[in-house]
Amino acid sequence: MSGWFASDGTHRFPLRVYYEDTDAGGIVYHANYLCFAERARSEMLYLLGFRQTEMAAPGGDATGVSFAVRRATIDFDAPAKLEDTLEVETRIVDIRGASFAVAHIIRRDGRVLARADLQLVTINRAGRAVRLPEPVRAAMAALYETQTDRTRDASPSS
Length: 158
Prior knowledge:
alpha+beta; six-stranded antiparallel beta sheet
């Protein structure tokens, strides 16, 4: 299950809330929203043609790199519950030398439940920051441009 890219360039990932995702009150435990964001981001990379296991392996275009979360902020608007079907929207919001930022919006039936903004850094096998591999950067930049163009198109003209 990889989800899909919407016409606005965002990645959409559906998921169902399982018993393991909930707390004693029957709602999604707050930390699991980060897990949902991770799944969506990983599936976005998968659809772009990048396998994180291959990227982390020595050799190839992305010699031994992986991504580490540097910063995460989450705003909660409403709870998700057991057996809810959710959709996680992922948008690239920034691309830098060694890092990139994504915004995730988690919805149920179109209603925003949570927003998670994350900054990730590319690290080598020794855990040191390194430049984002060029093939990954190019794929993300293409998505970013599509998203930026859509945002501009949707802006009211002055």
